[in-house]
Amino acid sequence: MKLLVVEDDQTTRDYIAKGFMEQGWTVDVADNGRDGLFLASGESYDVIVLDRMLPQMEGLKVLAALRAAENQTPVIILSALDGVDDRIKGLKQGGDDYLCKPFSFGELLVRAEILTRRGHAKEAETSLVISDLEMDLLSRRVVKNQIEIDLQPREFQLLRFLLEHKGQVISRTMLFESVWDYHFDPGSNIIDVHVAKLRKKLDSAGGASLIQTVRGAGYVLREPA
Amino acid sequence: MYSVSRLNPLARLRASSLVRYTLIHTAIVIVLCGSALWLVKDFSLGFYQKRQDHFVLEQLNSLSSLAKNSSEYEFREAVDQLAEDSRQVLVVLKTPDGYLGNLNYLPETVPVAPAMGSFWILGDSVLGDERFQRVRGSRINTPWGPMVVAYNSSDFNLFVSRFTLALYSAMILVLLVGLVTGFLFSRKVMARLHSINQVTAKVGEGELAARVPVSKKGDEFDELAGHINHMLEQIEDSVEAIGSVTSSIAHDLRTPLSRLRIRLDGFLRKGGADAEDIIEAQAELETILHTFNAMLELTKLEYGQGNLEFSNCNLDEIGTEVIELAEPLAEEREQSLMLEVQETLVINGNHQLLFRILFNLVENAIKYAPEDSEIKIVVDRTSVSVIDQGRGIPDSEQEKVFQRLYRLDESRTTPGHGLGLSLVKVVADLHGAIISFDRNDHRFAVKLTFPS
Questions:
Q1: B355 contacts on A by Cβ (under 8 Å)
Q2: How many domains does chain A contain in total?
Q3: Do B12 and B146 reside in the same domain of the chain?
């Protein structure tokens, strides 16, 4: 996997680069928009992490230039701006994901991994499985420990998202954005309540509990050790 | 910084577009007036002159045919006759033995017929104030010498000179009046512009409270002044808001920030921190960031810095989604959550924001209404209400709850940052909606009424 980080703040840049290298990625860096665009157009990357406020050329302009040149490399926009529409604007202009500063490295990694997987054409899966849990996407049936579980549509979407990213720690914000498609910080423990409800339904079927809470980070769907 | 008002007066006058426009306007008026007067002159005096020319040429014509068919004596008789017949006809024949006719010289400059020329004579008119008069005539050559016939009308000449004088005076008058009024108007307009310039220069130097004077006339300048003043008010408000937000952020974040600091100091004293400690510190930081973002966002929304996208929003649908999201929270407190659609309501708004404020209101209701009670979202033709069975907000506090960071005494112990209702207020304002409360025993309703 090859990553390009375009970020003018050295601490953040090094932090991102080091983190990805530890995960076995190859990382190129640029500290301004123009160099970033140059690298992005010349090389082939799996993901580009792009800051919005950059010297010489603004992040969204770099993105626009890339997309205008039909370069479809997935781009994660980083920004200190967190207005209501900033996020949506970023995504509309061709960004694939949007992350607000300050962010945790874990969240950035997960988002990047999700994007690379999206990039590789995935053969149409009709069922998702982990341990004794199976989700049939066609009949929309969920079976755990051989017992069929009745899920509401939103619970089904929530479980599906966790299954699609099993083993990855998913933050509450990511869940809220992906499952509910709302882009704000709900603040309260609303996501926890929904996850708890889903977990309770799954656990009621018996077998090991699969949805684990990672304190300070989010949730992960993982096979019990 | 370049500023016109810092130039010297002469350079200012030269740079002034008003002065330029006035001069251009005056020039155009002069050209137009000149053309009009020339036309008048040509059609009146010119016509009369042509008739005179015609008469002169006719006389010369008959004289020249007479000269061919008669003797010198007969011709001389005819010339004398003509000279005596009319004082308006000037005739002279230059013969070797002297001048014949009523002129005592033959003007050499007069061209041969049919061309016409003019020459000066010393008139004997008592009417004219000018003794010298210009007359028009033409000349032929006879076997006995060259002769000139001219037409002399002292009345007409007087008329011409008077008429011309009147024309020139009128021109000069128009020019003078044009220049003077132009100058006066320019000065007036410049004075008004100057007052606006002075104010904007003051504002440029940081004096945000300066305002442009507005007269009662309601003209373009007052309109401009009104716009500038409105703009200044907005800017002043924004600056004030930034100031107050900065200080309230500082105030509100100081507590959690110092808590965080104490925690970090603790780690240092302990000689290290385990994962549990770090997670707690992280949670503290999350709270700070959340409050910070919420305040920033409120300010942005309030002062229209983010251009929001508006589209058609169906409030029944938003209500359904809110209930779907909030249901588990209500279940925890054994409350029932219902949507009652009396009539479909579709408004032009921002879906995300409308969802958020409705969710905020429902979340508040869940938080503050008693357990095992009923919470309803009611949508009708113009409004959406959240109704619960709690004690609601006391009447005395209803104005204050929209202030940032304001929290009712009894709610200080529940989690939250006191910005939820501020957001509701700001978003309602953005949509032109009015918030009202309705409170009686065991029923509290917050109602958002949208403009129809």
A1: 182
A2: 2
A3: yes
* Whether residue B328 is found in the same domain as residue B186: no
Nearest chain A Cα to B364, which residue?
A188
Same domain? For B295 and B319 the reply is no
Question: What secondary structure letter does DSSP report for A201?
Answer: H
Same domain, A181 and A97: no
Give A186's contacts in chain B (Cβ within 8 Å): 359
Domain boundary among A119, A141, A169: A119
Over residues B139-187, the pLDDT tens digits come to 888 888 888 888 877 777 778 888 888 888 888 888 888 888 888 888 8
Contacts of B306 in chain A (CB under 8 A): 83-86
Interface test with A, best of B295, B305, B334, B359 (most A CBs within 10 A): B359
Residue A84: what pLDDT? 58
Looking only at the bridges linking them, the beta strands covering B145-151 and A2-6 are unpaired
- Looking up residue B344, the CATH number of its domain turns out to be 3.30.565.10
Note whether residue B427 is domain-resident.
yes
Query: Can the peptide bond before residue B394 be classed as cis, meaning omega within 30 degrees of 0?
Result: no
Alpha-carbon distance of A93 to B272, in angstroms, equals 45
B243 and B294, same domain (yes or no) = yes
Q: What are the pLDDT digits (tens) for B238-255? A: 788 777 767 776 777 777
- Tell me which chain B residues have a C-beta less than 8 angstroms from the C-beta of A197: 328, 331
Over the range A139-158, which residues count as b (16 or more CB within 10 Å of their CB) and which as e?
Answer: eeebbbeeeebebeebbbbb
The boundaries of the domain holding residue B233 are 220-302
> Is the same domain home to B168 and B224?
no
Is B329 close to A193, i.e. CB distance below 8 A? yes
- Note whether A8 contacts B: Cβ–Cβ < 8 A: no
Residue B410 lies in a domain: yes
3-state secondary structure of A77: strand
pLDDT at A110: 87
What are the E-state strand segments in A19-146?
Answer: 26-30, 47-51, 75-79, 97-100, 127-130, 133-136, 141-144
User: Per the structure block, which two tokens stand in for B71?
Assistant: 């003797």
Q: Do B297 and A182 touch (CB under 8 A)?
A: no
Q: Give the strands of the sheet with A147-149, arranged side by side.
A: A127-130, A133-136, A141-144, A147-149
Tell whether A22 lies on the interface with B, counting CB pairs under 8 A.
no
* Same structural domain, A201 and A184: yes
